[in-house]
Specification:
Order of helices and strands: EEHHEEEHEHEEEH
Number of strands: 9
Strand order of the largest sheet: 1-2-3-4-5
Largest sheet: 5 strands, antiparallel
């Protein structure tokens, strides 16, 4: 059983088979995947959805399917990508750590959905999962994601910026910025 989290305009829930087509379309979109080494194949997209569901079931946290509620303005579809908490699966100076992350289709950008849902995930991570700190990271060029990190109260940790081990040496997206927030810092933002 996967817990559901809600905000005024969003629902974070487990994954359903009818999410997979929209998820694959989003992961194949060059604009959405601009700050990744390459768009995902259908197989890679489906595998991420399956891993996300398994992680939610096993750990009580992971990347939730993001659904925009019917009462939200300008919502052409209910499924809107993912937002959630994920244990960082590689070694770096800041690991072990839990990351808050998101990926939304272009139609959902600029409406505050990522910030709203990510803030709800931070609250869940600190209050229900007992986390003391949550991180987030992105390629140095990804100013949109960096803006979300700042909006949800995270602080840049330039001394922990890193070269992503899953991005090839010399690739322009290899360098990543690290942001973090502690439970105490989060409590002050509320």
């Amino acid at each position: 059983m996967v817990i559901e989290l809600e905000t005024a305009r969003t629902r974070l829930r487990g994954w359903r088979p009818d999410d997979l087509d929209a998820f694959a379309e989003m992961n194949a979109d060059p604009q959405v995947m601009e700050h990744f080494p390459a768009p995902y194949s259908r197989e890679q997209s489906d595998a991420l959805a399956v891993r996300s569901q398994q992680t939610l079931e096993r750990d009580g946290m992971g990347f939730f399917a993001l659904e925009i509620k019917a009462n939200a303005p300008d919502s052409p579809a209910a499924f809107a990508g993912f937002v959630g908490l994920w244990r960082v699966p590689f070694e770096a100076a800041f690991t072990p750590a839990v990351e808050v992350g998101w990926r939304l289709p272009v139609w959902a950008w600029g409406k505050g959905y990522a910030s709203e849902a990510a803030s709800r995930c931070l609250a869940y991570g600190f209050e229900q999962q007992g986390l003391s700190e949550i991180v987030s990271f992105t390629a140095t060029q990804n100013t949109r994601s960096e803006a979300v990190m700042r909006r949800i109260g995270m602080t840049r940790k330039p001394d922990l910026d890193f070269d992503h081990p899953w991005v090839a040496l010399g690739h322009p997206l290899r360098r990543h910025l690290l942001y973090a927030i502690t439970r105490e810092e989060f409590d002050k933002t509320r």
